[in-house]
Amino acid sequence: MVDSYQIVKVGIADLNVIAAPDLIRTSGLGSCVGAVIYDQAKHVAGLAHIMLPSSASIKAGNMNIAKYADTAIEELISQIIKIGGRPKSLKAKIAGGAQMFQFQSGSDIMRIGPRNVEAVEAELRRFNITLVASDVGGSNGRTIEFDPVTTILKIRTVNKGIMEI
Fold it and tell me: What's the CATH number where 127 sits?
């Protein structure tokens, strides 16, 4: 018998949560980071498609919290706990953060991919969430899909095929 399941799609600057047997997927990860947080025993997970490292310069009233590492990770954790995840059991896997364009200036502003990775890792540390595996950097876009039962993050990278972490 085949279990019926959904693939929940997460858009750019978006986040969502799932429980088994559903899978969760996002595509278009260039400089963006796909952060998956999960509770392996409870078979629940969430995914945030993070565009930028910090919401510090944004006015609070009209902010998309899923867009920024400093607000998305906290919201994702909150939503995972609401569907049964346990704070002390959460783990993470991340992918993305590519340097999509080459700039001569070396300006930090243009290091969006690496800055996103650094910001996501800092937020995971802030909430004491172990980063189990990552596939970050490079210069190619990625699509990722996570299964909360196997905890496998399948990563399809442009021109590089599929890998699992």
Answer: 3.30.1330.200
Sheet holding 23-29, edge to edge: 7-9, 23-29, 142-147, 152-157, 161-164
Measure the N-to-C terminal CA separation of the chain; round to a whole number of Å. 27
CA 72 centroid distance within chain: 9
Residues of the chain with pLDDT under 70: 1-3, 60, 102-109
Half-sphere exposure of 139 (CA within 13 A, CB side): 4
Q: Which two tokens stand for residue 85?
A: 């995840």
Q: What is the rounded distance in angstroms from the CA atom of residue 151 to the CA atom of residue 21? A: 12
Contact by Cβ (8 Å): 17, 83:
yes
Give the structural domain span for 34: 7-164
Backbone CA torsion sign across 80, 86, 88, 89: negative
Selecting among 18, 29, 32, 33, the annotated active-site residue is 32
The yes-or-no answer on residue 139 being catalytic is no
> Does an H or E element contain 70, and which?
helix 69-82
